[in-house]
């Protein structure tokens, strides 16, 4: 579905109470022992899915083959027709294989100042909440977007918070958590991401923590976000503002998750140069090893 098609939904949303705000405690780590579950991010196989060489159902089989707990479904390649049948078929396939579908990942841009555009973004997120529900997923990765020319970061952050507040009411009624990802733009720095999630102040909004997207002081920024993390994508590398790149210290990262008492999924999102066919088995084995080592 395209955003312009959602314009038809805006009057209904406005009249339904779904655009009102709601106050609740901000999500935080429950503390105690960690419970870390492994997942495959479908984006890792983007070339194979785009070309038709592999399907989402094939990724369920990959999870079984490598003893991985879940499949994190990037939605970019879902069919444009027969979507409901496709979603239910994938849900059944995963269930019968004992592979969970904890999350979906979408594109979004919440840096919108115009009220009408904000309502469209609320409708957009609500649409994907329904898709997640059909898959049995309880989390959606959300991008904050890029600060428009002429706007300040503070202004853009306010727009993101407003849209998330509105969208969270519908998401919460469906049992779906919205995870704001650190993905550049308005979410470039950990302090800003944490501040926005705290400002939304809703238990159905948290942080989708991507370990490869911070660049000032990656490990410290990851640690800063962990108390609010509700899902995580694990990358094979980290990079810095000065242009340096280096392999990610997974042991250090997962140990930080354990210290924080993180309970949730860590999804391997592979983007490196080595072909996915040879790289993923190695990385999935390491993720499986570390997730079990640092879980209670």
Overview of this protein structure:
With 296 residues, this protein is of the alpha/beta class. The protein has one domain: Alpha-Beta Barrel (TIM Barrel). The chain has eleven helices and ten strands. It is globular, with a radius of gyration of 18 Å.
Secondary structure blueprint with pairings:
Elements: H1 3-6, H2 10-16, E1 35-41, H3 46-51, H4 56-65, E2 70-74, H5 83-96, E3 100-105, H6 115-135, E4 139-143, H7 153-174, E5 177-181, H8 190-200, E6 205-210, H9 218-225, E7 229-234, E8 237-239, E9 245-247, H10 250-259, E10 263-268, H11 276-293
Parallel strand pairs: 1-2, 1-10, 2-3, 3-4, 4-5, 5-6, 6-7, 7-10
Antiparallel strand pairs: 8-9
How would you summarize what this structure contains?
By secondary structure, the protein is α/β, with parallel strands linked by helices. It is built from 11 helices and 10 strands.
**What's the architecture in CATH terms?**
Alpha-Beta Barrel
Q: What sequence of helices (H) and strands (E) makes up the elements?
A: HHEHHEHEHEHEHEHEEEHEH
Low-pLDDT residue spans: 14-25
- The CATH class assignment is Alpha Beta
Counting DSSP E segments of at least 2 residues, the number of strands comes to: 10
Number of domain modules: 1
Sketch the major β-sheet.
8 strands, parallel, barrel
